[in-house]
Amino acid sequence: MGKAKCKESQNKRKQVRKQSKKVIPKPGEKGFKTSTQLRNERKRRAKKKEKSGYRQTESESVEAVSSMNIDPSLLYVKNPRKAPLVQKAVHFFAQQNVPNFTVFCGPAKAWRTVAKLAVRNVNNELTVGLFAPGSHNLVAVPDCPAHHPSVNCTVDVLQETARRSGIRAFDEVTGTGNLRHVAINVERATGSVQLTLVWKFTDQPADATTNKEESEALDRLCKKLIQQGTSSKGESSLTLHSLWVHYNAAWKHDNAIFNHTGRWEHRHGPKSIVENLAIDDLKIPLQFPPNVFRQANLDAFTGIIRKIRNVLQERASLSAAPPACVELYGGVGTLGLHVADLCRSLVSSDENPHNKACFEETVRQMKVSDGSVSYKSLNATEMVNSGVLNEADWIVVDPPRKGLDDVVLGAMAEVTRPQILVYVSCGFDAFQRDCKYLVQHGQWEVLHAEGHILFPGSDAIETLAFFVRRTDDDS
Ligand SMILES: C[S@@+](CC[C@H](N)C(=O)[O-])C[C@H]1O[C@@H](n2cnc3c(N)ncnc32)[C@H](O)[C@@H]1O
What we know:
- 33% of the residues lie in helices and 21% in strands.
- The protein is an alpha/beta fold and 475 residues long.
- It has a domain of 160 residues: CATH 2.40.50.1070.
- The strands form 3 sheets. It has an 8-stranded mixed beta sheet with strand order 1-16-17-15-14-11-12-13, with helices on both faces. A 7-stranded mixed beta sheet has the order 4-3-2-5-6-7-8, with helices on one face.
- Helix 10 packs parallel to helix 11.
- The longest helix is centred in the middle third of the chain and has 23 residues.
- It is globular.
- The two termini are 43 Å apart.
- The N terminus is likely disordered.
- The structure holds S-adenosylmethionine.
- The site of S-adenosylmethionine (SAM) has 17 residues, from loops.
């Protein structure tokens, strides 16, 4: 981002801070308002905005670009802070009187180290690309500037090799063809790639001959990719960390790239990419096989983890006893493990059964063997129903875009023991809903919030919010 534009958004942030400072005089000062008065004012302002048609939902903004065949990850790349959801977040926190809402943005190029791309026929040629938002129009993305260079090289090599090997791209109208998606994850330290071919496969006995031909084609493709990806002669631009196949038998109208009933086959190389985030002097080797969630911009996400650690470190230093922490929607423990040393206990959890082994391997390598750190393969509702929130001093949540599950949100509002709730959100509309609910129905207030643009150029914002127990008694 140019200096002038950076200055412009700094000024805007200053203005927002100034405005929010203006409307919250201290008790006893002229114009002081109680929480209830402020809340009612917020409601009135929100209603007015709604009437004036300001609100743009995520789906509306998606619809607006679906008809254009442009790379959706580059829509706002000239000024990522201009993305509608970023603007909406700034506006929301100003309305909520949350001061100092800052939006952080890292480099706009080469940040994507996790890419899931579709494979379809375009002009009768197998093509690897992205669907334009809200559609199944494939947009080829050669040399995408958002992609880590290793992703672009892999797309080139794979596309060429698959074409030459006579691999058929999946056709969602007829349900024919095999290669439907590819997942490319980059090991940041070496630039080598963990490549997963998502292969349509039917195991109907009637298809036995077809199956044999198709699996031979797959074997040929894998063999060629391994040859190219491990060649020491520098002939290929592909450096392979590992190769996996995910068999997805789902029929035409299924948008999920990985199918939870689909089979995973490990063909080559180490099973997991190991990522160490440079946070303090912690040594936390996170394990990422392709069947677990991994942040697409781990460099920028590290800034979020660092902030969580700083705030919780300060809280821990103020509390009489080390706290007990519960993590929901925890993935492989990406957030929780980075605060485990500040706690008496950490119970992390996630619904994806593949995470548990990753979490436990990291803990084994961290040499934590006293049982204070544990993992439950349960969804967030099951965790809440097990009563675990009543034993927690800190709660850390990082739900998918749809936000907190209803039962979880209801329980969060009612539970009385936890003193801090750390909420990381990748879906701003859902966060807005959850935040309003927690503030209105629970005893929570927002201590601090900040935005992180993890996908510069896309219409997205990652929100980090710290909720603490309300201390005023006038609500
Ligand atoms: C945005 S990811 C965050 C994971 C982790 N914090 C990280 O940064 O790697 C959301 C996680 O929620 C999990 N998830 C989705 N729905 C869930 C549910 N209802 N209950 C528990 N986990 C869920 C997914 O498997 C995924 O690992």
